[in-house]
Amino acid sequence: MANTFLRKTASSISNSSGSPTTVYTCATNKTSIVIGCLLTNKTANEVTVTVLLDTAISGDADAYMCYDLQLPPKSSAELSMGKVVLTHDNSNGDVIKAHASAASAIDVILSILEDVNG
After folding, report:
1. 7 CA to centre of own chain
2. What is the Cα–Cα distance from 16 to 41, expressed in whole angstroms?
3. Both ends of the chain: CA-CA distance in Å?
4. Are residues 36 and 80 in contact, defined by beta-carbon separation less than 8 angstroms?
5. Which of 88, 29, 25, 97 is nearest to 58 (CA)?
6. Check: CATH 1.10.3470 for 4-114?
7. What sign does the CA torsion over 19, 24, 26, 32 have?
8. pLDDT tens per residue, the chain (118 residues)?
9. Could you tell me the residue ranges of all domains in the chain?
10. DSSP bridge pairs for 99
11. Which of 81, 84, 91, 112 has the lowest tally of Cβ within 10 angstroms?
12. What is the CB neighbour count within 10 angstroms for residue 38?
Protein backbone atom coordinates (compact mmCIF):
# COMPACT_ATOMS: atom_id res chain seq x y z
CA MET A 1 0.00 0.00 0.00
CA ALA A 2 1.41 3.35 -1.06
CA ASN A 3 -0.40 6.27 0.51
CA THR A 4 -0.33 9.35 -1.69
CA PHE A 5 -1.06 12.93 -0.66
CA LEU A 6 -2.96 14.75 -3.40
CA ARG A 7 -4.16 18.27 -4.01
CA LYS A 8 -7.17 18.57 -6.33
CA THR A 9 -8.40 21.96 -7.47
CA ALA A 10 -11.42 23.31 -9.30
CA SER A 11 -11.32 26.92 -10.43
CA SER A 12 -14.48 28.92 -11.13
CA ILE A 13 -16.92 26.09 -10.35
CA SER A 14 -20.32 25.68 -11.97
CA ASN A 15 -23.30 27.75 -10.95
CA SER A 16 -25.70 24.92 -11.86
CA SER A 17 -26.99 22.48 -9.26
CA GLY A 18 -28.01 20.23 -12.16
CA SER A 19 -24.46 20.15 -13.51
CA PRO A 20 -22.06 20.65 -10.59
CA THR A 21 -18.29 20.65 -11.06
CA THR A 22 -16.53 17.37 -10.26
CA VAL A 23 -13.59 18.12 -7.97
CA TYR A 24 -12.43 14.56 -7.17
CA THR A 25 -13.40 10.99 -7.98
CA CYS A 26 -12.19 8.17 -5.74
CA ALA A 27 -9.86 5.83 -7.67
CA THR A 28 -11.05 2.34 -8.62
CA ASN A 29 -11.00 -0.14 -5.73
CA LYS A 30 -9.38 2.40 -3.39
CA THR A 31 -10.23 4.22 -0.20
CA SER A 32 -9.26 7.87 0.20
CA ILE A 33 -9.58 10.43 2.99
CA VAL A 34 -10.41 14.10 2.51
CA ILE A 35 -8.23 15.92 5.02
CA GLY A 36 -9.05 19.45 3.93
CA CYS A 37 -11.46 21.43 1.77
CA LEU A 38 -10.91 25.14 1.16
CA LEU A 39 -13.53 27.29 -0.59
CA THR A 40 -12.67 30.78 -1.85
CA ASN A 41 -15.02 33.49 -3.07
CA LYS A 42 -13.12 35.56 -5.66
CA THR A 43 -15.85 38.14 -6.19
CA ALA A 44 -16.96 41.40 -4.60
CA ASN A 45 -20.37 39.88 -3.79
CA GLU A 46 -21.63 37.31 -1.31
CA VAL A 47 -21.92 33.87 -2.96
CA THR A 48 -23.40 30.62 -1.69
CA VAL A 49 -21.64 27.32 -2.32
CA THR A 50 -22.73 23.69 -2.02
CA VAL A 51 -20.33 20.73 -1.79
CA LEU A 52 -21.79 17.25 -2.29
CA LEU A 53 -20.54 13.72 -1.71
CA ASP A 54 -22.14 11.87 -4.64
CA THR A 55 -22.05 8.11 -4.25
CA ALA A 56 -23.38 5.31 -6.40
CA ILE A 57 -22.25 2.58 -4.01
CA SER A 58 -25.13 0.29 -3.04
CA GLY A 59 -26.72 1.22 0.28
CA ASP A 60 -25.02 4.63 0.50
CA ALA A 61 -26.91 7.88 0.01
CA ASP A 62 -25.62 11.16 -1.38
CA ALA A 63 -24.80 13.68 1.34
CA TYR A 64 -23.84 17.33 1.56
CA MET A 65 -20.57 18.51 3.05
CA CYS A 66 -22.15 21.97 3.01
CA TYR A 67 -25.39 23.33 1.54
CA ASP A 68 -25.74 26.94 0.43
CA LEU A 69 -22.85 28.04 2.65
CA GLN A 70 -22.67 31.84 2.47
CA LEU A 71 -19.21 33.14 1.64
CA PRO A 72 -18.70 36.88 2.07
CA PRO A 73 -16.92 38.82 -0.68
CA LYS A 74 -13.21 38.04 -1.13
CA SER A 75 -13.21 35.42 1.64
CA SER A 76 -12.38 31.75 2.23
CA ALA A 77 -13.80 28.96 4.36
CA GLU A 78 -12.31 25.64 5.46
CA LEU A 79 -14.93 22.87 5.36
CA SER A 80 -13.39 19.76 6.86
CA MET A 81 -13.77 19.79 10.63
CA GLY A 82 -12.97 16.08 10.61
CA LYS A 83 -11.93 13.53 8.03
CA VAL A 84 -14.24 12.34 5.25
CA VAL A 85 -13.71 8.80 3.95
CA LEU A 86 -14.31 8.14 0.25
CA THR A 87 -14.55 4.66 -1.23
CA HIS A 88 -14.76 2.82 -4.54
CA ASP A 89 -16.06 -0.75 -4.69
CA ASN A 90 -14.52 -1.60 -8.09
CA SER A 91 -17.86 -0.77 -9.79
CA ASN A 92 -18.92 2.59 -8.38
CA GLY A 93 -17.19 5.26 -6.38
CA ASP A 94 -17.59 8.43 -4.38
CA VAL A 95 -17.31 11.78 -6.14
CA ILE A 96 -16.91 15.23 -4.58
CA LYS A 97 -18.89 17.83 -6.57
CA ALA A 98 -19.53 21.53 -6.02
CA HIS A 99 -21.64 24.38 -7.37
CA ALA A 100 -22.13 28.03 -6.47
CA SER A 101 -24.84 30.66 -6.80
CA ALA A 102 -22.72 32.70 -9.24
CA ALA A 103 -20.65 31.63 -12.23
CA SER A 104 -16.84 31.79 -11.98
CA ALA A 105 -17.00 32.97 -8.36
CA ILE A 106 -15.71 30.04 -6.29
CA ASP A 107 -12.48 28.03 -6.30
CA VAL A 108 -12.18 24.71 -4.42
CA ILE A 109 -9.00 23.08 -3.10
CA LEU A 110 -9.16 19.53 -1.72
CA SER A 111 -6.36 17.87 0.21
CA ILE A 112 -6.63 14.10 0.00
CA LEU A 113 -4.80 11.06 1.30
CA GLU A 114 -5.36 8.47 -1.43
CA ASP A 115 -4.98 4.69 -1.40
CA VAL A 116 -5.37 4.05 2.31
CA ASN A 117 -6.61 0.46 1.83
CA GLY A 118 -5.40 -1.86 4.55
Report:
1. 11
2. 16
3. 7
4. yes
5. 88
6. no
7. negative
8. 578 899 999 999 999 999 999 999 998 888 999 999 999 999 999 999 999 999 877 777 889 999 999 999 999 999 877 899 998 888 888 999 999 999 999 999 999 999 887 5
9. 4-114
10. 50
11. 81
12. 15
